């Protein structure tokens, strides 16, 4: 166990925070609630961006960029949206600083007050639909399939690195369609893209489903989400896709002429995934030794560490190591050769375990003699010695194996920690003592949902798409219910 | 000539603005000075990002992300920096909106006033060096070679799409070094990276040089810049790299222990390139038909347009077109097949000329019979008919040829419009009537520089690295000078 990490089983929250800091992923900045994403953490975000961007483009989307600032009045245009987003926002009121005549520093110039305050975007539906108004006239202008990579700000009171920060990075898709059916189809397509990304790249099994009315995006007719289960038994919403109906088109008066010449409001979707996913990635797979990164998102997939006693040995090992590095890189694998001589091999071993590098290759004098290397995998910590000649065939398969193993382990954990519950006492016991996903019947009312939340802190993660029709009684009120929904305490 | 474009020779500024709008690159947003970068314009930025990012990584840099907000007091810490940047800034003073009890909308909650105002970053030296303070203790922590892709805000009073906007996108590199020499070397390395990028990818010849003291970055010891010449004879600064000395390390108290155990302040550089480059790209190469894009940055390199009279012809042409598209894509070329039937071929031809697609392939019934295609290049507008079978060999070479031709044309223009001038009357005449780069002697004082600027609007673009030592007399004062500097009116 890494000595400087809090034990995961003693204090999960502290373990998580230690890990983010010690693995050099991110840190809190001097600005309240804003983090600095350090190079190692940002490299994971770059990998996430690259893969998602490919998937977005493969499904017909293009990128664009809309302003950071939104006029305050825009928030009042959509009735529900204003309640959800026009609250904890960063508000720009002035556009100039000037020298403080009385002191050393600078002060806000009272003469430079904006006529209308600007809000730093917490999400961009309003400013984007205000633009779409000028872009859309006829059905020929549709669909519009735009994504934006951007920073957004929500003035959160309690923040945690990656999981909840005042400023965060994300992508937000905003699409416009001629028909309701097409928009619903897009909403589904994108939640499936997120689910596929989570499972294939993040090795994170997810449950796809509808949000309850209470948990929907402010301004949406329907919100789809993917829910993942963390190792402490809490749920984490890992991506959402919203069917917005004609709400924003009506709010910003975006109408189009359809094929029959009739005027109608445009149908909309929006969908987003953020740097929060890095928090999910860390919490889902890591252990007391540090991060466990799925090879497909690991900034460094293989690290090579030389073990030597003198300069001669070091030089001989270097030659082999650089040859192996080169050969692996030709296979498209990212490799770091760490021959810094200010740290001992044992220190390096622990450091790359902490950083979750999937495969470690060590080469010592004995290996030179035998033409072997020692190869260790981060997920199971199992080591073996293999011939140098076989490494180019071995490593690609090993990386795939690690990726699958991490996913399977998380899937097994999800399965083991999903409960079908029909009695209130059992519901409370599991939520309070074990955690996990509790599949239970619910009478469909926001009132009951709120009462359950108040008594147990459990919320409805989602109503899974694949939850079968089944007659039952609400876990709380005993009223009739047609399907089970997913309850959990949640991040 | 595209009818909807203002003639370039009649009104260059209006031609530029028309072009940006009509080619669907960007538009002004409802927020003063902020633009919307539309998908076609953003696709060029994505190409710029991809190529620059590769070059940054090849020179040892990594990406990270620092907060959007900077505490107001940070700006006062570096004496020169405060004068340059703590002026026209967007200032966040509140963190909450609330319902207007008297009306329909929302108002800023007076209770939610920040203790210290936050400035939306105009550049990030201060917040980054405040972080580096905690990262750097010993020479072993150096160098730090970090780049950030981000949005920044400078409250410009007069804005123009891409060239000068309140919010813009850019990258900013911020590096920390143990020695002055290393930092100077880095400053030079990065201006050379920018120059190579401009010439190789943007097909834009540039002059590399030092900025005069007056034009330096606020807080820099030395600023290097690349200057490009636009078709109207004005200069455009296309990228800058700053040697910051120990100024920011002193302002934020960032010291390190060197190899000998001595404590010293850290040496710094910063360097940036922004979406302004898209404006340069447009202004340098385009003509009265529309954009002329260098193939290496063109979102679509080849467009294929079918010409048919009936459905049967359309189907037969489609088969050939899709086969050609597929074959070209396998060569790594981006191809669009435009078989929309709501616009005639002539309209499409004009539209893709407007959008600067480097190569257009047209296939009609006659081509089907003869196994040929008509191929047209955007830069020269020359058309030829070639056998279908030769297309996979022909197009890659043609794209290279177009790239080179655009660069050579711009180089020739730069050469033709660079003047060695020794008389004040000639200086004034060229600046006022012809435009271009004027290489003239200067006495080295800010006073003279200001006077020349006031009388002619010409500034010192840079003191070119390759301007040879040459005894002469200042063009304005007649005082002795050791080398010529580059004067121009500038964007």
What report would you give on this structure?
The structure is a homodimer of 491-residue chains. With 491 residues, the first copy, chain A, is α+β, with helices and mostly antiparallel strands. Chain A folds into three domains: 12-285, BirA Bifunctional Protein, domain 2 (2-Layer Sandwich), CATH 3.30.930; 295-402, Rossmann fold (3-Layer(aba) Sandwich); 418-488, Translation Initiation Factor IF3. In chain A, 34% of the residues lie in helices and 27% in strands. Chain A contains 13 helices and 27 strands. Chain A has helices at residues 12-22, 39-58, 79-85, 125-135, 180-200, 247-251, 276-285, 311-330, 345-354, 365-370, 391-416, 424-434, 446-456, and strands spanning 26-28, 35-37, 62-63, 69-71, 91-94, 97-99, 106-108, 113-120, 144-153, 167-177, 207-210, 222-229, 235-245, 255-257, 263-265, 267-274, 302-306, 335-337, 359-363, 372-377, 383-387, 418-420, 437-441, 459-464, 472-473, 480-481, 484-488. In chain A, the strands form seven sheets. Chain A has an eleven-stranded mixed β-sheet, with helices on both faces. In chain A, strand 14 (255-257) and strand 15 form a beta hairpin. In chain A, helix 2 (39-58) packs across helix 5. The first copy, chain A, is globular and about 80 Å long. The model of chain A has no long low-confidence stretch (mean pLDDT 96). The interface between A and B is large, with 64 and 63 residues. Strand 5 (91-94) of chain A pairs antiparallel with strand 5 (91-94) of chain B.
């Amino acid at each position: 166990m890494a000595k400087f990490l809090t034990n995961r089983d003693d204090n999960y929250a502290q373990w998580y925070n230690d890990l983010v800091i010690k693995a050099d992923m991110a840190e809190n900045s001097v600005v309240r609630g804003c983090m600095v994403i350090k190079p190692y953490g940002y490299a994971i975000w770059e990998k996430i961006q690259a893969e998602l961007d490919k998937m977005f483009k493969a499904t017909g989307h293009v990128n664009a960029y809309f302003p950071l600032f939104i006029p305050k009045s825009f928030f009042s245009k959509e009735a529900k949206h204003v309640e959800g987003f026009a609250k904890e926002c960063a508000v720009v009121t002035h556009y100039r600083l000037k020298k403080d005549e009385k002191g050393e520093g600078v002060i806000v110039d009272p003469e430079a007050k904006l006529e209308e305050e600007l809000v730093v975007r917490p999400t961009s539906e309003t400013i984007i639909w205000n633009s779409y108004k000028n872009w859309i006239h006829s059905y020929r202008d549709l669909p519009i399939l735009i994504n934006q990579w951007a920073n957004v700000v929500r003035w959160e009171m309690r923040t945690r690195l990656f999981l909840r920060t005042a400023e965060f990075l994300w992508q937000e898709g905003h699409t416009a369609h001629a028909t309701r059916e097409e928009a619903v189809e897009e909403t589904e397509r994108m939640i499936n893209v997120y689910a596929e990304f989570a499972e294939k790249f993040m090795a994170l099994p997810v449950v796809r489903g509808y949000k309850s009315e209470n948990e929907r995006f402010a301004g949406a007719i329907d919100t789809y989400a993917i829910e993942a289960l963390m190792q402490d038994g809490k749920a984490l919403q890992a991506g959402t896709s919203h069917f917005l109906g004609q709400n924003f088109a009506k709010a910003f008066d975006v109408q189009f002429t359809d094929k029959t010449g009739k005027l109608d409001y445009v149908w909309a979707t929006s969908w987003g995934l953020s740097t929060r996913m890095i928090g999910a990635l860390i919490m889902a797979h890591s252990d007391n030794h540090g991060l466990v990164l799925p090879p497909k998102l690991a900034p460094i997939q293989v690290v090579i560490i030389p073990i030597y006693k003198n300069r001669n040995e070091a030089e001989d090992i270097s030659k082999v190591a650089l040859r192996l590095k080169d050969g692996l890189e030709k296979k498209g694998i990212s490799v770091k050769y760490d021959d810094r001589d200010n740290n001992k091999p044992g220190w390096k071993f622990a450091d790359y375990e902490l950083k979750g590098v999937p495969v470690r290759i060590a080469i010592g004098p004995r290996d030179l003699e035998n033409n072997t290397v020692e190869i260790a995998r981060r997920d199971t910590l199992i080591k073996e010695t293999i011939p140098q000649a076989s490494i180019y065939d071995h490593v690609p398969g090993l990386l795939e194996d690690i990726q699958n193993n991490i996913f399977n382990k998380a899937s097994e954990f999800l399965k083991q920690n999903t409960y079908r519950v029909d009695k209130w006492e059992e519901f409370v016991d599991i939520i309070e003592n074990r955690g996990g996903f509790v599949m239970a019947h619910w009478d469909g009312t926001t009132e009951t949902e709120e009462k359950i939340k108040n008594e147990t802190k459990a919320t409805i993660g989602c109503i899974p798409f694949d939850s079968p029709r089944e007659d039952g009684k609400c876990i709380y009120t005993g009223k009739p219910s047609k399907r089970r929904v997913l309850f959990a305490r949640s991040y």
